[in-house]
Give the backbone structure.
Amino acid sequence: MPSYSQPLPVRSSPSPRVRAMRTVPRCRALLVTLALVLSAAGQAGAAWNVTTETIARITYGATNNAAIWGYHQPIVVRSGQRVYCALLEPHGEGMAQHWSLYERGPEGWQRRWSSPQAGLLNQPPSIVADGQGYVHAFAWPEGVFTRWRFAVGTPDEPRRDRPVSPYDDLYPYAGAAVNAAGELLAVASYWSQNLYSVQLSGAPRWQNGVVAYHPKRPDSPSGYDRQAYPFVAFHGRAAHVFTTQDIADAEKIAAGAGFTYSFRNLHYFYTPEILAQPFARLLVIDVEPSRGCVHNDDLLIDRQGNVHLLYQYMVHEGDWSDVRTVHAFGPPGGPLQHVELGAPGAFNSGRLWEDADGRLYGVLPRYTTLHVAPLAADGGLAAEPENLGIESTGWGYYGRFFLCAARASAEGAPWLEGMYSVQFSPTESEARYFRAEPVPPTAVTDPPAATESAARLRLQAPRPNPFNEGTALSFSVPAGIPAELAILDLLGRPVRRVRLGTTAAAAGGQYAWDGTDAAGRPVASGVYVARLVAGAECRVQKVLYLR
């Protein structure tokens, strides 16, 4: 069993499992705003308004890394009214790829700048916004750690410098963060040590230091037990780093495994005063005794200065049905409490988000669909996670979501917004932006004070749901008011439409949908919305179709 930094029990907040969706959407990417307004009956979570936009279409070779790739670093960030995104753009095979900075301004998404098509890259840059009119990108072409500084909203060429020393490979995984004063902290993981560079107000240049030295690991061909994939947070002059173990596993190499690295422990590093006090190390979890697997997913420092970590572990590596998503939280430096979110196998990866009122949310993918739930004071789920209707595909069998994290912007993260990918073919994908906002309770349909006609307008949840061959929607409509039932995709476009006409008395009925459009063609797997309208009243239900 795993060992934790403190002998505290791991509590579990219940959440039923759902079938994973592993399909590619076939709709054209447009700017859309979809209010997922749900019937209040039986809904534990709040409804959300969701907007999605296309950032760019990316073509890459069959042997390229996926265009959207990364575990830890912020690659989406907000600066005032503008949003920025860093993307890899392959131009050949293998590691032949450069990166581009995209900017969302008054005219929508546009490519702001592209790096030269030279210098191999392993991951896209980390980007942060300092609140002083600049966006900073950190990357390591050819293993040379580099910072580019972009002026917000201008076409000017970026300024470039090197925060830390060059490396001799492409894998000094790095992260970056900014504090409210606009000061910058970058952390890179080399085989022998994790290094940091800090740029404080008024300082003429970067100042460098060491987060942690890595112990020797004789059974690893790299020779070290490295802590890599750093999540970084900078809160005042206090610095937080959350890492996962990264060893070249001799047993896997000898066995000819496709993936030869092992992740068996997580560490959290903290200093209350960068440059003045060394980092203290705290073991978060260790599954090495069981030969399990762990991975860090997010790091958030809330408005009260408390630390929140999100991570996953499985007791036995490869047992994906038993993967656990855990929220660990406590004061800066620890100790930490560990609380499981949902049932084993319910989620894969995840992020944390704090809204403008200080409410903390878990942003939790279920394979390709994105769910959001508020977190309770005890660290668990306060409600059943709400499906935002976003489907991300590509990079293996599930998509990845990247959020505008508070640690990446001096202005915080007032909205839940970020990026996901949609893969159309083995060599073509699309990067998309999303923004989600909770709907105020007064906006939810079926309010307590319903009108007489609305009281007789009903649309029951479809049965079965999810469905494959067919589902039935039971409804009732008021007298004397024309009614219509429609099946809509997540862009709000009608797939099927049934005009129910006007009845002399309140009437009920049932509509069977077989997963086809008006022309009888099968629709793509995914989430659809059943909408019943009578006069000014409306009822909606979500429908999940799995081919």
